[in-house]
Amino acid sequence: MEIQVWDKCDPFARAPTRLRSSKGSPSCNKDILIKLQAYHDLPTLILEWRKLNMTISKVVGPMMRSKSHHSQLKMDRIYPVCQTLTATGRISLHEPNIQNIPRDFNIPLTERLKEKALGRRETRLLNSRLSRDPTQASVYKVSMRHAIVPRSGFLILAADYSQLELRILAHMSGDEKLCLALNKGHDVFKVIAAAWKRTPIEKISDDERQQAKQICYGMIIQTSLWESSGLWEEDASAFIHSFKATYPGIKDFMDKTLIDCRQRGYVETMNGRRRYLPKVTSGATQFVKAAAERQAINTTIQ
């Protein structure tokens, strides 16, 4: 698949070698395809197909298999299995996993796609004045979250904390600059991006804010979220260096967390919940130890 895609797209030959796998061979993983969009239209199509295929196989299929009809409510219901005995203390759901339903996304519809999916008559109607929203005729919105609806007369309430992990990190690290940025009520990710770009906060774009958010949370949960942010590795590294220099209390807190974990063999959350991580000191390989260290930081904050 990877070699065929690269061979079919001549512009890929101009792509930097860093867009290939670690062994130098052609790669079509998500992070590579995001960067290859600048050289050809095909990566966008592949990413859209994968997103739709994942939605059907990981969301639609499991939900359809798990649903059962409720005769009194006159609607289909889903009853996931709730798992409370997790290592992190978090509650997880499965069969199906309704906590992992993807966000809404748009798929551009060409005339050929509309005719293939709807038929010529329906396509003409869609593009006519009879269409409810002709301005949206070229875009199809996929929203799996709207498949879950409340019973008649009830509502589903969606609530979320604002920048929760970052606020917990600021509290536990005691970093004065980060606490000040959060307490002022500013968009903290724009503040971080402005310091990184050395640009006035009002000139920070939504894309730059999102990149700062992804890399910031990547540091918090110890993953390489920068890979899917569209940034080159050296740009992400520059951001991380700038972030740690601007908020030195965070690095001190992370270092202290690892030192304490190596000494005691466990980490504690704010509420005193312990997670034992013996592999921090007794891991068979460096890879195993590094994974345990990531879990130590992740558990403490999340």
From TrEMBL:
Name of a matching Pfam family: DNA_pol_A
Domain DNA-directed DNA polymerase family A palm: 143-302
Gene3D superfamilies: 5' to 3' exonuclease, C-terminal subdomain, Taq DNA Polymerase, Chain T, domain 4
Coiled-coil ranges (or none): none
GO molecular function, one term: DNA binding
GO BP, one annotated term: double-strand break repair via alternative nonhomologous end joining
Superkingdom per UniProt: Eukaryota
InterPro entries found in the cross-reference section: DNA-dir_DNA_pol_A_palm_dom, DNA/RNA_pol_sf, DNA_polymerase_A
PANTHER family the UniProt entry points to: DNA POLYMERASE I, DNA POLYMERASE THETA
Name of the molecule in the record: DNA-directed DNA polymerase family A palm domain-containing protein
